[in-house]
């Protein structure tokens, strides 16, 4: 299985402050990879760098294409979807309007309608709320809508930033089960940044652990999950 994303010697900056210090990582096509670490370790900054949202140096290649000179819009057209922390749904628009917004760059109406039906199959609660304003949804439903809207892009790679944030444990379990199904059935490569390390390692095939802007451990998720020293030192469980 080939690598769909390669990151080499990534250094990222907020003004004069350096946040990442030479990160290397890669994602195998069709895999689920998790990036774990404490608050402020550099997880969100890594995703922002991949999406060309902050200043960075180093190489980021998606399917062999260098991303550093490409705008966020062009990244979307390449097949990269980003679900930021805080969900980012359009609260005054309905569920279905949000989904259609995710497909705004497409002009194949029949296929778009088919994809909306597919999202409703993945997320039955959204079908029940299809005419409801997104701002009136529960936190879990808003997170599901954010993921579904990203999938309307038909991405090859989906980047998720703290999808469990603020959600009840049962809802988190349901959401991660849906992500596993999407990866398995739709062949979407997923990179998930997460503080719930135990659950993320159950979902992922590969894992990286980041501390103060540096990768301190990487390998198969099961191997990292079974390493008691790593769990205690870096993952908090």
In short:
The chain is 39% helix and 28% strand. It has 237 residues and is of the alpha/beta class.
Task: Give the helices and strands, then pairings.
Elements: E1 3-14, E2 17-28, E3 32-36, H1 43-50, E4 55-62, E5 65-66, H2 72-78, E6 80-83, H3 95-102, H4 109-122, H5 124-128, H6 139-151, E7 157-161, H7 169-186, E8 189-194, H8 197-203, E9 206-211, E10 214-220, H9 221-225, H10 228-235
Parallel strand pairs: 3-8, 3-9, 6-7, 7-8
Antiparallel strand pairs: 1-2, 1-4, 4-5, 9-10
Helix pairs in contact: 3-6
Describe the structure.
With 237 residues, this protein is an alpha/beta fold. The protein has a single domain, classed as P-loop containing nucleotide triphosphate hydrolases (Rossmann fold, 3-Layer(aba) Sandwich). It has helices at 43-50, 72-78, 95-102, 109-122, 124-128, 139-151, 169-186, 197-203, 221-225, 228-235; strands spanning 3-14, 17-28, 32-36, 55-62, 65-66, 80-83, 157-161, 189-194, 206-211, 214-220. β1 and β2 (17-28) form a beta hairpin. α3 packs parallel to α6 (139-151). The two termini are 32 Å apart.
